[in-house]
Amino acid sequence: MTGVAPALSVKHLSHAYGARKALDDVSFSVTRGAFAVLLGLNGAGKSTLFSLATGLYAARQGSVEIMGHDVAAAPSEALRRLGVVFQARTLDLELSLTQNLLYHAALHGIGPGEGKRLAAQALARAGIGERARDKARDLSGGQMRRVEIARALLHKPSLLLLDEPTVGLDIKARADILAHVRGLVAQENLAVLWTTHLIDEVEPRDQVIVLHQGRVLADGAAAEIVATQKAKAIGEAFETLTTGLRE
Amino acid sequence: MSEAASSSGALRPFSAGQYAVCLAGVVWREGLRFLHQRERFVSALVRPLVWLFIFAAGFRSVLGVSIIPPYDTYVLYEVYITPGLMAMIQLFNGMQSSLSMVYDREMGNMRTLLVSPFPRWFLLGAKLFAGVAVSILQVAAYLVIAYFWEIEPPSKWGYLTVLPALALSGLMLGALGMLLSSVIRQLENFAGVMNFVIFPMFFASSALYPLWRVKESGLLLYYFCAVNPFTHAVELIRFAFYQQIAWDSLAAVAGYAALFLIAAIRAYDPAKGMLQRRGG
Question: Residue A67, Cβ neighbours under 10 Å: how many?
Answer without folding.
Answer: 24
